[in-house]
Write a structure and sequence with these properties.
about 120 residues, mainly alpha, Cytochrome Bc1 Complex, Chain D, domain 2, 5 helices, globular
């Protein structure tokens, strides 16, 4: 009986602490990604909305795609176009940096009809 009561009290506490730690880790990852994204601003614009129409918007893009693309640039798998610039930028990124950036840009609001003129 005492063990059941103890478990009934401990399990929710442990789960809550785990959720809170996860939320804090996610917040830290987003903070780091916002800092890392500064190197992307010149071509992809603030919050991933490209100021130059020939450059892709990153805002609202699928996170898995962004992660794949950055890793492909970093490895040299992607070539042509501006790949040399992307490779230079991606070379300094760890797998975790890339994952954080992908999640950061995918969470940004993309262009919509009210912002395009």
């Amino acid at each position: 009986m005492k063990i059941t009561l103890l478990l009934a009290l401990l399990v929710p506490t442990i789960l809550y602490a785990s959720d809170e730690a996860s939320t804090m880790a996610e917040a830290e990852s987003l903070k780091r990604a916002a800092q890392l994204s500064q190197q992307c601003l010149g071509c992809h614009g603030e919050f991933g909305i490209a100021p130059i129409t020939t450059n892709p918007n990153l805002a609202g893009q699928n996170a898995e795609y962004l992660e794949y693309a950055l890793k492909a640039y970093r490895s040299g798998e992607r070539k042509g176009g501006m790949a040399f610039i992307m490779r230079a930028n991606a070379n300094g990124l760890s797998d975790q940096d890339i994952k954080d950036l992908a999640l950061y840009f995918s969470a940004q609001a993309g262009r919509n009809s009210s912002t395009e003129h």
